[in-house]
Amino acid sequence: MRKERIKGKQSKNTKNQSVLPKSINFIVGRVLPVLVFLGAGFFFAPYASMQFQNNDVKALSNQAQTVMFYKSDCSHCQKAYPVVFWHNVLNFQQPDKQIQTINVQNPNNAHYVTDYQVQETPTFMSIKNGSDRMVTTDKKQILNFAERDK
C-alpha cells in the first residue's frame, strides 16, 4: 500500500527542539558578525592601503617629518607597513606625526629611488635631513625614528 502525503501546513513538534535564549541569539545573530567584520577590517585594512594607495606622490610632505619608501610586494615592507599604517591612524589629526608612505614600485613614484638613492626597502628617511635613514622592520625602531624629531 502506498502512502500519500497531504500537501499543506504540517504541524511541527516544538517540544523536542532546542531553543537558544534570546540573548545568545542576539549575540550570535547581531554582535558576532560585526566583530568578525571589524576583525577582518583590522587585518586587511593595512594590506589594502599598501596595495592601492600612494599611486602618484607629487612631492614629499611639508608637514610629515618621516617618509617610508616601500614596495608593495616586498615581504619586509609588508611586515613594516602595518606599524606605519596604525601609527598614522592613531595620529590622524596630527600631520606632523604622520609617516608619509611612498610605494616606489609604482611607475609614477619610481623616480624617488634615484632622487633619494633608495637602495633597500623599507627605507625610513627624515624629511628634514635626507641623510638620516634607517632600514628596519622592527616596530620599536620605526616608532622611535618617527617620534625622535618631535
Question: What's this model, at a glance?
Answer:
The protein is α+β, with helices and mostly antiparallel strands and 150 residues long. The protein has 4 helices and 4 strands, in the order H-E-H-E-H-E-E-H. The protein has helices at 22-52, 75-90, 111-115, 139-147, and strands at residues 66-70, 99-103, 123-126, 133-135.
What report would you give on this structure?
Strand 1, helix 2 (75-90) and strand 2 form a beta-alpha-beta unit. This protein has a four-stranded mixed β-sheet with strand order 2-1-3-4, with helices on one face. The model has no long low-confidence stretch (mean pLDDT 81). It has helices spanning 22-52, 75-90, 111-115, 139-147, and strands spanning 66-70, 99-103, 123-126, 133-135. It is 41% helix and 11% strand. Helix 1 crosses helix 2 (75-90).
> Order of helices and strands, N to C?
HEHEHEEH
Indicate the percent of residues in helices.
40-55%
Poorly predicted runs of 5 or more residues: none
Morphology: elongated
Instruction: Please report the number of helical segments.
Output: 4
Q: What's the end-to-end separation, in Å? A: 90 Å
* Order of neighbouring strands in the sheet with most strands: 2-1-3-4
Proportion of β residues? 5-15%
Number of DSSP strands?
A: 4
